[in-house]
Amino acid sequence: MSVKVASEWLNSCSGCEISVVDMGERLLDVLQMAEFVHIPALMDHKYFGQLGDGRHLEIPEADVGLISGGIRNEEHLEVAKEMRAKCKVIIALGTCATHGGIPALCNSYRNEEILERAFGTETTDPNAFEPEEPLPHLLDACHALDEHIQVDLYMPGCPPHPDHVFSALTALVRGTAPELPGKSVCDTCPTVREGKGQLKALRRFVQSPHYGAPDEPLEKMRCLLEQGFLCMGPVTRAGCGGDKVTPRCISARVPCRGCYGPVQHDGNQMVDMLNALASNGIDVRSLPEHVSLLRFSGAHRRLRPKRQRKEA
Amino acid sequence: MAREIHIQPITRIEGHASIQIQLDDAGEVRDARVNIMSLRGFEKFIEGKPAEEVPRIVSRICGICPWMHHLASNKAVDRCFGVTPPPAGRKLRELMQTIAHAEDKLLHFFFLAAADFVIGPDADYAVRNVIGIAKANPELAQKVVQMRYKTKMILEKFAGKAIHPVAGVVGGFAKPMTEEDRREILAQMRELLDFALFTLEFAKEKVFPPYLDAIQTLGVIRTGFMGTVDDDGALNLYDGKIRLMKADGSYTDFDAQDYTDYLGEHVEPYSYGKMPYAKAWNEGFSLDLEEPKGIYRVNTLARINVADKMATPRAQAELEEFRERFGRPAQATLLYHWARLIEEVYACEHAIELLEDPEICSPEVRTPAEPKAGRGVGCVEAPRGTLIHDYSTDENGCITRANLIVGTTHNIGPMNMSVKQAAKSLIHEGKVDEGMLNRIEMAVRAYDP
Predict the structure, then answer these.
(1) Helix, strand, or coil here: A3?
(2) Would the CA dihedral through B118, B123, B125, B127 be positive or negative?
(3) Of A48, A244, B24, B289, which cross-links A54 as Cys (Cβ 3.0–4.6 Å)?
(4) Is the peptide bond before B86 cis (omega within 30 degrees of 0)?
(5) Has this prediction a pTM greater than 0.95?
(6) Which of B142, B161, B370 is the closest to A249 by Cβ?
(7) What letter does residue A31 receive in the DSSP assignment?
(8) B160 has pLDDT over 90
(9) Domain boundaries in chain B?
(10) Which residues are listed for Ni(2+) binding in this entry (chain B) (predicted)?
(11) Mean per-residue pLDDT for B424-431?
């Protein structure tokens, strides 16, 4: 049986699409069982007809719609709504689609501030930028998909591991429910935890963590958080290691920054992390700033511009 | 009657762009433009973030070339904090970047661009893509998918994450390479070099020949070029001086730290992407097809045009053959594809060189750093062109100001010119068909935006 698949990318970087391609030879199996009807990354189906003379944005009907990226401008919103209208199942692919992702860091600023900087750098010619048709207007913030359309399946990850993309697609073809990991990164991390220690403050990641010989297995390295480095493992959903499980950043001996989003869909990575640190007696003021704790999940109004002082 | 055609979205590229073609009453092309449709605002929102975290944030500018942003950013942060990576740390960064280049070029050639040549520019859109290639030539498709996957998995296995990497760290690299890793990756890169040489021969024999006329005409414009070379004038992807060449072949070299003296960025209301130009030429900015001003190009063709030579033997032989046929600087836009495959050979050869150097296995991979106030420009050659990250930090080591010039951005002006040239030469009396519109997109795809 073949399923029709439509795929779109919105406020994103294309990493999710590349992760789909990174399935290796399983990609050829996917191409056997799925018929792509729309995927701008790989295929030339156009919004306004193949001759560009249509009046309305149109995406063909499909069984499964994959959407990566959040919703940041009017075009993203129009495309997301058209995908919802034409696809039976919508998968939010990647953390930008599920929680805003890195681009939602823009939510700490007003659009004017962002435009002012982008078009006011030291190399930019000093003439004001006034966007014209057909450039889409920016929305007030970068939104997760479910702030505008109904989402049937959430597949976070920056990017989602190809193992999970493959198993989700095969499950949908078979008509079964895809299984995705629901634990935290710490639950899947092989490093050694010795329990509550004497740690009072965190260090910046400007030096190497301690480990033995270059080939010493991760099972022998002490937990990076216990070594005093901020690691978002406790408040981040597991899955980045795919079927091999070991978290990917940890395997490079680098602490987790939370790219799979919160463990529970509506969790708050910043609040949960600060609580976790405080309850272990660690001074949260030792962190240089806190906004970065929401770097992957700043949509859903978690990050907002600082309120402007009212003029007296 | 005057009308407007929208090619929306431009497909088989990375990101969001469209083409606007305006026809006059006679159905002739009055103007054609490329619209860059989105803006994310990285320059603003990395402000206030601890600088050592930024290489893990800006990687998300591009999921196809995250290693480039990651490493340019690391180089900028090193300078802000005044720290120099030890030799092995530097070499591991360069190795990862070089392997990422090798993977990227396979992706672009086979997955994005080849269908226009192998399946044909006029073929139905449903088959004019990598899926069509897989059905038409399953053996080749399997080999391509395997080779690309293996290359990507080298990065993933050694460095943890291949997409949105984390292994570059301020002061060097996050982990050393073991002798076992080195041998395994070396064997894989030798296999990839064979495949790169096969790909180039395959392209020269089977892919390009039917299109030699199109190569000499489609999207052809006359511009300057920019790329990075080392002290010998050989092409260098990781580090060196920036060479800015005029269309007549004369050039100036400059240090990336001084980029603001040489480059400016022009703004147009129809594009969220800015258009860099050569401010140092003192001629202003114009996209006029006959007399462009300030316009230079980057990416593969530009790099092999500005370089005096290639540092590795097989790539050098290919460059000599290329120059014999097309001259220096070569201007034909579709030659970007050919240049890309020469660079593919270079990337494989250079990765092998790096892996044959025993120093790459030194356990000294990272110099400890202290957050502090400073300024640093980090620059690498991304697959899509010269990539510049420029940061300032406060005494707490957090970003106070950032300016980014991303590889593809340099080519936005030239893409506008190539699209206009292609549209003007293809569309007459208001007659338009799918093949024509796809050819106009091919003029964009060559730049691999």
Answers:
(1) strand
(2) negative
(3) A48
(4) no
(5) yes
(6) B161
(7) H
(8) yes
(9) 1-38+425-449
(10) 65
(11) 96
CA distance B287 to chain A (A): 16
Please tell me the distance from the alpha carbon of residue A93 to that of residue A96, in angstroms, as a whole number.
8
Nearest partner of B185 among B88, B96, B310, judged by Cα: B96
Domains of chain A: 3-174 (3.40.50.700), 181-312 (no CATH)
Q: Compute the mean pLDDT over every residue in chain A, rounded to the nearest whole number.
A: 93
Strands A87-93 and A153-155: parallel
Q: What is the mean pLDDT of residues A265-277?
A: 97
Rg (CA), chain A: 21
Q: Tell whether the model's pLDDT for residue A54 goes beyond 60.
A: yes
Considering only the beta carbons, identify the residue of A24, A105, A215 that sits closest to B149.
A24
- Model ipTM? 0.96
CB contact under 8 A, B9 and A47: yes
